[in-house]
Batch of 3 targets.
Target 1
Amino acid sequence: MDAQPTPESILRAWQRIEFFQPYTLDEKKQSIRLTLSELRRAGDRLLPWLNAELREQCDIPDRAAYVVHLGLFDKSIANQVARQVFGTESGLAAEENEQRLDNEGITCFAKVVVDKHGAPALQDLSVSSLPWALGHLAQQRFNQLHSQTFKNHCETLADKLTTFALSLRAAVENGPRILGAADVLALLHDELVPWADFSPAWKYALQIDWFESGSSASEDDTADEDEAGGSNNIALPILNSFFFDDLEIVSASLHPSQKSKSLRAYLSNESVPKIDLYSQSAMDAIITLSHPAKTPPGRWPADPRHNMSLMQQFAINAATTELADGGILSVNGPPGTGKTTLLRDLVAHNVVERARVLSGFTQVADTFDKNGLLVPALCGFEMVIASSNNAAVENISKELPQQSSIAEAYREINYLAASANQIAAAGLPRRDKRTAKEPNGKGRTYHLFRPLETDKQCWGVISAALGSKKNRQRFAQRFLIDEHFLRDTPAEANRPQNENFLSLWRWWKCHQHTSFAEAKRAFLHQLKQTDALQQQLVTLADLRASEPQDLTPLKQQLNALQQQLTQQVRARDLAETQNHALEVQIRHLLQQQKVLDATSPGWFSRLLNRKKVQAYQQEKAAVQQNLLQLTQQQVLYAQQLEAAQRKTGEIESQIQHVQQHLQQLIDRQAAQAREVQALQQRFPDVAMPDPACAIDDVTLQRNALWQNKEINDQRSRLFVAAMALHQAWLNEALYQPAFRSVLFGMSDFLASPQKSPQPVREWQTLFMMVPVLSTTFASVGRMFSGVGAEELGWLLIDEAGQASPQQAVGAIWRAKRVLVVGDPLQIEPVFTTSPALVKYLCEDTLARHADHWNPGLLSVQQVADRTNHWGCELEVMNQVQSIGIPLWVHRRCREPMFSLANRMAYNGRMIHGLDTEAIRARPLQGLIHNRWIHVTGKTTDKQYHDSLGDGLLQLLDTLLSQHVALASLYIITPFKAVKFALIDRLAQRDLHTWRQWQPMLKQKEIKEWQEKNIGTVHTFQGKENDTVILVLGCDEENKGGAHWAASKPNLLNVALTRAKNNIFVIGNRTVWGSYPGLQD
């Protein structure tokens, strides 16, 4: 039997797959794309750095530098090569490939930056490993698809590029060597193609984009977008894979002496027995982990009237308790079950715990080392939110700072609110910005941002969306540099609410600050209040959980002692009776002796009547003998009586002791009962554990144990005080020269973290000011370059069901504690590489264990769920699915969407947070009922037929005629072909037709709606809207697509649960009606 694969071999298999990741090259508005024939025919005239007229025509600034992508070809060629080697798919596999494989668009061989003169930075040229890997695939050189071979080939290419650079001509004597059209062709054909041993059908020879060299990052920049990354291990940076370098670094670090508890668990082959959280036997474990002593004292300041659901709070308690020393935990959240709410409370927990440490310092200066960096006690609370879905991480990072994320009762909270607004605001175009002189005579550009809408206004810099270099530079610019107002002017001092914009430094100057000492006192007061309240709950929980002592043994002991006492009293009484009888006999003998002595014969009688004397003497001797015997017996009886009395006293003493102990216990139990009653009256509306309650009880699942409005409010106020303490700390920290020096370098650090000698220390400083930073997995390697194993406190993975397992490796390795949140029954990861190729590479490296680690079959969520000892099993379409900690209470959709999705994907286990009447189906605008619109027709473009478009247009006219807002509608389809066809069909409508029902509609509004609200199911995960129009496809003779879409619940589950209020389905009921879920 072959051994289990090692973590290193798993990472090696995943890294080999990364060679084939396509780099998507987007065409920007100003891009110039040139074909080979155009470049050969027109030559240098098509290169803007060599043609001033072209620069003027394209409005290219004189100081612009250029990004040149070389050797453009269709991404679909990669799948074509794989089919040549492994054969063509059929059936469901073919349909799945068509819909899930990222096959659209253009990719390229390499990228190089060219300066304004035309000099290429060939030493920094980055290459895509895809054409190199395709060359090996086409020739079936699988044994060379390894990182070392690739490194060697890149070193060879780097040497050739050095020689090539020397062959370039200079435009002027002693000037820089420039890149001409012939050089581009030579670079492509003589260097890159031989290096890859691959020459595809070229789409374009090159694409040229430009940016203003030397300018600061701004929203207008087209500079480095953080496309994959450079490596210290490879001679040339890799253009296409964001994860290749991290997989290499992590694999090299996985030796026993290195910390990596979370990643080792993630890559573990061991099967972890699960405690089934949907079984009655799990109730005791749920009650134990829901104990108020395990509930974090901090809470996000949401509406205190709304408790967590039972499993939300269980998941939070499990995370904060079980991950204290590191590890990984997974939570499974079906749509609308409060995954974001859960993450918010974890954020609140970390902020409060760091504030607890911070409150232990006497003065702010003590929180820094000599270099102005945080002391270790304040580290370990860093929080990174990561996902493969850029929208997911940006949404949560942008929502957390908004006032709409907190309840009205806590709107007084203000943590750098003006800076948060500035980060959130949209920039004004350059023509609307102003320039003026400040009072000090210095010129400054100001009036930089658009007024912020009320629902987008912020309470604090609790989080920031970073990731790509562009995002990091934008954040640094907004947070540390930009100034919307001229300094020290009335406009700055009297900022309107919708233009409350200040950089960190201007906030420091303009804000009315609370001292650190005062904020510390306020926090400690709230902490004391919270602890006192929670201690009452702990006492109540412990008293209710404690079994009252069984008094039966004591009562039995008392009864036995009383029986012994009765017997002993009888023995004592008998001894007394016997002793009394002896005393009577002895008195009688003594009397008899006196009588004998009185009748004693005289001396004369003794001489004359010797018989009488002898008889007297015999009688007296007998009396004396009897008297002696009775006296001896009396002594014995007296001893027995004394012993009986002593024993009786001992038993009586024991009885008294037992009676006292028994009474004490009775009094104690009565006191505890009174205390329980008093505490229950103190918290009458708190849900308390009942082990006998059914695990699927609606009331049990809807409300977390040990919560009510008062408790929630106090925990939220503790978080508010914790944020105030952080703000007071920051205010006084800015007076520290060493800390100020660190902040002065923060912009440069964020632009190039890899250049820092100790990046984790600088990140810790930023996390102290901004507790939560988000990034896509694609940017983790570059953003956290140089950050080692377990050097970040927390990693919160969102939408983990959409991410391929290798994407999270670098992030998990860098984090001490990892919480994975997602749902494997929603959108699956997009295929970026041919499944047949992925299967082969996994089998080649992992043998019979290939499917267990095949990233084409798994998501981050599924791998993490395997390591979780909490969870349950679902039967989904006759297959058992094992998941992690389940969130069951749904709060988004009304009927019929809720019940349809619940039956289809979750075994009916979801529970709605509202009662049946509150979620019953209601017609749209009170008139238009949810319905299936049956259309028939022959497909003309894969799954599309015109009757789908006809049905959609008729439905849209009906909805618009009833004043339904266009923005409230999503149009969703499982199929790419249907999406494109519908977009084309809608684009054919003129503005007059749109306006026949809603005259105020604008062309821009329609265009934005078409771009954002129409798409395949994959593009809508994590979003919601009032109404969804689900457009199906296929016909009775071409059912393959329908069979694929309905073969798993994922697509239809997501489509249904995007709709909060209404659903319309357009499709052929004959084709679709027989599939699970759709027959309803």
Note: The two ends are 48 Å apart (CA to CA).
Target 2
Amino acid sequence: MTPILPWRGFLVVSGLILGLAAGFGGLADRVLLGWTDGAALQRVEEALIAEIQAIDLSLSDTARVFAFQEDIRHGLSEGTLDERHLFDVVRSIVERQAEPGLSVTIYGADGVPRAWSGRPGEVVLSSGFIEGAGFTDVAAAGIRLVRIESVRDTSADSSVETERLGVVVVERVLAPSTTAMAPGPGFRFPTVIGPALIATASGSGLPEAEGFHRFDVPDARGRPLLTAAIDVEDINGTRARWRARAISLVFVLLGLVALAAGVRVLAGGGNSHGHRNVPLAASVMAVAWPCFWLGTPPGLYGISALSGDAYKSVLWPRIIRTPVDLILAAGFFGVLVALGVFAVNRWRLDDRPVRLAADRTIALVSRHGGRMCFVGFLLIGQQAALQDTVDGAAVDLLHTALQPFDSARSLLQLALVLWSATTMWAVGALIGGGYSRLPAGFQRKYAPVITLTWLIPLVVVVGGARASFWPSLLITCIGLALGLRWWRLVTWFRRTDPLVRMAAILAAALLPALPLYLALGELSHEARRGLIEKDYAVQISDHTQGLREQLLARTQVQVDAIADLMDIAAPSRSDTEGELDTDRAFSIWRRTALAESRLSSAVELYGPDGSLNSRFALNLPDYGVAASRLAGSGCEWGEVFGHVAPFGSKERRLLHAERGLCQRTPEGVLSPVGAVVVHVAQLDYESLPFISPRSPYTELFQGVDRAPVPGEPGHTVELVIYGWGLQPTFMSGRTAWGIDEDLFERIYATRSGFWTRLSKDSTSYDVLVTNDRSGIYALGYPIHTGFDHLLHLSEIAILVMAAFALILACVFGAGLLAPSLRSIPAAREVRARFALKLQLWFVGVATVPVVVVALLIQGYFADQLRADVEAGAARTAAVARSFIEESVVLQRPEGQEVSPFTDDLLIRISQVVGQGINIFDGPRLVSTSERDLYASGLLPTRTPDVIYRAIALDQLPSFVGEDTIGSQRYQLAAAPVRAGGREVILTVPLVSRQQEIEEQIDELSRRVWGFALFFVGAVGCIGWVIARSIANPVRRLTRATSRVARGEFRESVSSSRSELLKRRVLDRSADELEILESDFNKMAGELDSQRRQLEKTHRLDAWTEMARQVAHEIKNPLTPVQLNAEHLLRVHNDRGSPLSPVLQRCVGAILGQVRILRQIASEFSSYSSSPVADQVSTSLMDLVQEVIEPYRAGLVGRVEIDITSPRNLPAVSLDRVLMRRAVTNIVENALHAMPGEGSLFVSVFRQGSELKLVIADTGVGLEPDVLSRIFEPYFSTKVSGTGLGMAIAKRNVELNGGKIAVDSQPGKGTVVTMTLPIDDVAARGAEIP
């Protein structure tokens, strides 16, 4: 019943969690939004009003802070104006307020801006504005909330109205402008249910449809601030999203429960027959995948990892919809393989399957062939998964840089690593399992052939073009190496430390990185070439035709669809009074496809008299168009035709389309009242979607088609267009590839494109070269170097290690919640292991300086790159300034001077420097090469505060800073210009160099940190070796100490290690730890010897005591038995009536057994008596003769006795009784070992100062295990023996100062050698004859 209780608790807790999740999802939207749609609208309206009023109050407080600031009043006072001080005060207050998106302007009494911060809009100050009231306005940045406060002189008499010194305008953007597409109704302000539409207090632009809830948003005093509208459908959408997320949460929790249950089932098997639980665990875990799949639908959470835009499978689009689905599939595949490997390993350990017999050839071949087929299927599946991932991914999988981080790309890379690791280890498991079932002899005999057969799947798969060669070869070879050592690895993994297991798991995940990277490189190379050939090259060749057939056609349809076209085109009175209007033309332009394409284009509106009254253009200057007149046009679009327009010193080819705007007269006749004209540049290659724009202003118009960013395919593609004179006419990069004569001849000889390899700036490129009548087109991308490949591999390793660390962190975090997980073995290993602490210290000490040096190097080179870019930007601004200053005085024939600050001049300069040019006079824009963008309100006309402060106030000769438009950061170079008696500020926006510098800094950072990682890895390996060299002796000492503590004193080190230590100690080349280890081993050996001697002494004492008791107990009952038997014989003999034969035999047997028992008792008594040797000088040969002679008569004809001895042997000092007993016991054993015929050899001879007595027989001999116990008391090989004969012989010989040794071989006999010292006195006297 024990296993049931945890399952009950597990299911109860899981049910509670699921119930809480379901309840939370079902009630969250009701609690958050309300129970009805009306209540939800009311709640959202109240929340929006409260938020807007809070912003308004915050702006009001900020405005009051500025208005009552004494420094500002003093700075605006007449005669004491100090703009620098005003800027300092404004900046300090803005920093102190720390309010996001805050812009502040301080106006003087004359309405001129004196100081400002941020990107404020222009406010027309009139005498009728309500002081302290807020209002909304639409500016370049979007709809903004504005607060105005007067700055008054408080030093005057309070009884009269104080003088107004200036005005403080504080503003904040509520909702940014969206100019990329056709304008929608209102601006979007985020709320709980989604974006609400807001507009100015007039409510113009908000939808009037029935499905919208409109309301006014007042300030705290009830005055209207703005009007808002909420789509009722958004409420239902929000409720649906909440419910979907609740259901998603439930399914995710169900998946976690199923996963935990599978682990529980697997762990519940214990150590016995654990493989039998694998099918149940696999079934339970199989439920987890569909639960996770249902819990992670695409687009529900708005992250790229759960978006089908980042990745969607081509082969299985309904199953693998997002990167999360792919990693779930790879994880499920890995779990299945891991469970299969676990089951096979446990089955082998538990049930010990027998190997197949060698004669079962068919079974061997069929099973081996089946495994080879499965290996082939794994290789094909690996290739198919990689190909499908590359085909379905919208990100560059070879972009391994972690910055900028993309969750979708990282998950895809991790999924591929997991898939490859699973494939490789599955191949290794198949090969290892196949080897384990083969007979051992079969393996040894056909090992090379068996090994080569595993390459057959590789040959078949690669030969059939089902997989790439090098990645498949690496996976097969690594799997083969793993398979050949599979069971050794499994055994090592089971017995090693938990921390080493974690490191092994990490290494198992990192091992397939190389074949995966090779496969990804090959597939990405093919995908990039396909993208260039099938997409980019086609866009270039169809560029002009596409403009004519698609873009202009779409634009014409979109213009016709504008409902209020006639009202927009109608000129106003101001059009004839001032400068050329741009707003009406811009209103039409932004609603067409021209706003999406970033294409150089223009929209012009003409009046009834054919005069131009409104124009908006992007990158098209208006040379002379203000005075141009339209000759005439019909009421429908005319035929599109091309024409040439001036563009600086060059000409630009344009496509022209026009349509008359007609109204019906009272007579019903269509009468032209104006015209709309569209111009589009024919060869504007910078507008191609894959070309990064050079102007930051294109960020204002980017729609769906945008240039690839780092991490997306095509980001590194460069385009160079050459004329047939081989001069570059367009370059997307900074330089062009050189075309030599051979390449030019090849280009000239064919119209079809071809790939070649070209170099520039020390970088090789793969380049697709095509051509037509217009020129030569080269599209190329850089080729990675060897260092780049190593860098990519290291970044993949970092990603895998980061994911592994995250998993471990989750495990440790779970341990904080689950008590059963708090004592994780790995954590104990980290705390306890001395070697690990040493290694971590080595790595830490080496990592800190490496990180510091890497940061310093990165910072230094990044500063150098930024300094170079800033210097280049300053040079660009200097060129533009020189161009203007050289045109200071343009003399008319009458001698009048013309101002140089004109838009036409700046347009010409922009063609020279390749960037836009702006001129600011004080706080306001004077002239620009992008007049239409400023006139339409897309860009603010206020001088950037940092530029004004640096040039006008600090009087710097040049300045390079940063600015933003939308999400686009770009560099802004500025310089003062003195011309015509005026000093103005020139600014040049530089977006291309900003992108280049960011990419170069990112690449530099990758290289520096890649090298740092490599160095740390090398130091880690060296530290591991050093830590092991230090910790191994300590570990051996620890084990030896534990062994001694357990009473195991025998040295367990190998003989080679022991000899090495002895040699190093003798040579004095050992370190302190090795000397300590050697001394400890000696100490352990001595302790073991002393323990054995002590045990021997205790054992002998015990045997002696037992022998004394046994002898006593045997002798007592034997005496009456012997006396009664002898008395019975004597009585019958005295009477003359002998016993019957049977009785006679019985009495004789009794007396015989009594004699035997007495002999045994005598031996026990002799062994336990511990006699003292009474030594006298004796002839050893005589003693031997006394013992042997009684046996000769009984052994005649059966055992031959041979006694040899030289003459004149010296005497020995010994106890004759003890020695005679010892020799007798040895002879008795020798004769017992020869039950049949044999020979007994006895020899006595001198060897130095000793006499040796050797007794050898030709008996049955002794086995080695018996020989090792020959002198052990009570050990005997005879049925009737006591086991004391040899023990007594050894004792008696040693009591006489001698030694005894036995050598025996089974079937050959036994040799007993006794060594006795020669008597010194006898040795000095006459030798015994």
Note: The CA atoms of residues 642 and 920 lie 36 Å apart.
Target 3
Amino acid sequence: MINAFKAGLLVAVAGSALVWASDVSAQANVTPPPGGFYMADGSRTADYDAALTSWREDAQFSVDYSKAYLGLEHAYALGLTGKGLTVGVNDAGVYMDHPLFGGAGKIKGLNTVVSDDYGNDGRINPRRRWEGHGTHVAGTIGGARIEGEAMFGNAFGANIYSATTNFAAGDFLWYRDVFINGDIVSTAQTNIVDLAATGEVRIINNSWGSGNSLPYNASEAVVRQAFGPRSNYGDFYKPVLDNDVLVVFSAGNGYGAHAGIDAAAPMFDPRLRSNWLSVANYTSDLTPSASTSFCGQTATWCVAGPGHEIVSSVPGYDFSLNAIAAIYRPADYRPLYTATSVAALQTASVNRFLGELNAYLTNKRAAAAAGRPFDEAAARRRVAEEAVAITLISGGRLGDPNGFTAQLAGLLTSTNNMALLTPDFSSDVLTQANALLMQRLETLITYTGPGYEAYTGTSMAAPNISGFAALLMEHFPEYDTALIGDILVSSSLDLDTPGVDLKSGWGAPQMQVALQGPTALRDVRDVDVRVGTVDVWSNDIGDARDRYSAEVLASYPDDIGGIVKKGGGELILTGANDYSGVTRVEGGLLTVNGSLINSASTVAELGMLGGVGRLAGLTVEKGGVLAPGGSGNLFGTLTVADDAVFKAGSYLWIRSNVNGAAHSRLAVEGKTTLEGGEVIVKADQGNWNLRTRMNILQSAGGVTGTFTGAKSDLAFLTPMLTYSANTVHLTLARNDVTIASVGTTPNQKALGGALDVMTASAMTNPPAGRNTALEDAILDGSADNVRAALNSLTGEVHATLAGVASGDSRFIRDAMLTRGRNGTTEATDGRGVAVWASGVFGSGRQDNGELAGFRSEATGYLAGVEKTLNGRAHIGVAVGESQSEIRANRLRSTGEVKTQHIGVYGAATLGGFDFRLGGAWMDSRTRTDRSASLNRFNEQLTGRYDGEAWQAYGEVSWRKSVMASTVLEPYLNYTRVEYDADVVERGGDAALSGDVSQTSDLLTAGLRSETHLAGGNGRPALSAIGHLAWTEDLSGDGPVFNAAFSDGPVFRVEGADLNSGALQAGLGFNIEASKSTNIEVGYSGVFNDDYKDHRLTGRVSFRF
């Protein structure tokens, strides 16, 4: 039971939904993560305000004021949870069976030199199982978010690395072992070093410290005098620096005193200043909690965190004051039971125990003076029993079994007291008191498992800030601790005295501000942004010293900021930045879209500086690149307020739109000195042509010197520079590289030749009204991207479709030839009429080094009727329709041919030979879609046109029976096919027109076989039909597209000849269901070096 006296300190402010400086009315544009902002229920939304509201209204989020105080909803809406971070908790040990620490890898412990009878491996002292301090701290930092639990940690996705610092409170043996036996039972500072040395933690939270009586506004000299003798750290904390760890300390609970000695460590080792935070405790109304110590001389690394009545995880237990009162009657301990404040209770407890110690000394002296025996053992037991009684009564009043153990044990182990009592006495009393206390607690404490309580203190404020830092590190994973620290402290809402002051330091950190980068820098910071990442800092960034109050500035007058951009990614500055340290770009891209008012910029080797903002001064060193403009405005102007210098080996990168009407440029309000360097023109960073004229550099104070020249990857243009007193101009001239020369295939070269003519005629003064978009795009390209685009410009898809249409002629031809073979055998009375139908489905694939490959699908149906003239001849007619579709990715094209077929055929047997003749006419409707693309030129082109084809064939064969069931039929076939179409495309300057045609003279030699498998003699019969042949195209030509652009010459584009040099193979099965009905199914394929075609066919015929 917790009585009202203690409960007043432990009331949670559940249900409060506070909104601080990050109120929704002040939202900036926030880019959502992929999939949208995160709602508290796990869903996603495009509405940022809705996401924020969902978190603020979440019961676990609002269990107390801490998360709203820090604005953590802004991190959670972006999906930040601390995932991937491990936070060290250097505390009293953690109750690891609490569900907030469940799951593989969520928590682990550090093994120290402390013996097993104390807390170790990150766990609680086994004699003090009620200890909730470390569990509370760990839960605040990284307790998991679990439905049904009371709360979750600020960085609920982070892991915990717990190190046990055995606190003195509640443990009589601690004082015996430390002060009398000299044992190591507490490794507080060593744990920091050991956790850092693991290389696994980025943050180490320390919610502990030693008290002091210094006023918070004590001068630097006074603080150094007080703390200095105990602060000779040397290289003790070097692992913290080597592993770039952020160490967070609670300032202390000194009721207005100065922050503790450990929080002030950077005063005595300045290297630690960027890796240290000190945290005071402020309430929900942004005022100091009564118990807090203040920042004092730690102000420049100190913030005000939420630490008043913070709800978090603890080991649950019941501790009954009523049961204690039954053992220790109130009448016997009235001052302890009637105290009305913590201070009064402590005074009563200490006075009661001092009285017992003095009684022991008095009685011992009196016995000695009187020569009486003195029962030393009984006396010691009496003192131990009194220590336990006071501990339990005071603990029962406080609701904390620790009671005032520390104060009582401190009386026994102080140097002066032990001189009177003897170390042996104190050791014995502490040992007995511990044994009796453990015995009593077995009946007075009931452990109830995982629980939650509200604690108050800077011990609670510090982990709130540690969790905040973990979220920030997840958001900016490449940033070092120094920069994270600057972002964290400078995000703060100012409290107390304006500026960074001795009470609350920087103030209350605000996540919404921190996510947008720093607002002040305490030193020149490296900013590492990895390749592929774009970080945007939208805050105005100043020197930290400009934020300091007068008393803080006196100690830290040189805290000026600067940035050194590193890594291959991009950092964008959009604010009005007045920090006065250096700005240096050593890697990746720094984009200044705001201003650098007081900081001169230097672009070093491998660095790039761009944007449309304003710089103070500029130096571009060897290997550095200045690139005015940015992703939001490629053709913008970058302004330099003072002077600009381009060193030898530096680069100025210029981008342009069509004709240079808009282009990126550098405007210098001072003078410009050119000591060499080059101007870069890149094909994929602008639109270039012979009409490009641009002023790329304007300098009000004059231009001195020249660039060594200009270079580009433009294949067909050469940039040229001219100078005047205040400007540098860029123009372009045609070089002697032909477009045809960059082509690698005959079709590309033919296209390139036509484009050479077109670009030459366009030149600098094209005829009025002429569309030169295509010519401009070609001249705008590099050799590589022009070569890559030529396939999409050739129109090869039309030649390919002509080949496909010609190839589809075999659909009706094969069906008529099949009927030519079968028709003479299906009726022998000279009066038979037959009807038949067939269907086909197939797919093909063409791959050719010089021609773009394609994939095809084909379907079709046919029907026919025929008449047997006599037993040895018949004639017939066939009609049908087929459809073929192709996809040619290298051509960025798709196409479709729908063909209607009509044919006549006949067959006769003369002597031992069979003769077959036939012809067909085909009408095709063609549809094409292709994308012509090069740099920023992109046109979607469509073709809709008709084509015609005809074919005629003749075949002779000889049938020979082998064995009883098989017939072999060698044959020779000649077929002529002619196809022709007039192509018309629409869609832009790259549209083509012209005629496409193919003539094929196909000679085929092959062998067919038919084998009777079963049935016959009045029953259904089954036969297998095989087919193997070789085809050559005697004309030797594939399809040809004679193409032209609207303002260009004709050029020849060839397609694949799909039938020449091809092996044909097939296998089918014929079922003679009755004398009048035949069913046949089969497979046929065409195979040559570049083309494979597979088709499935089904046929049925009926005789009357």
Note: Residues 1-27, 824-830 have pLDDT under 50 and may be disordered.
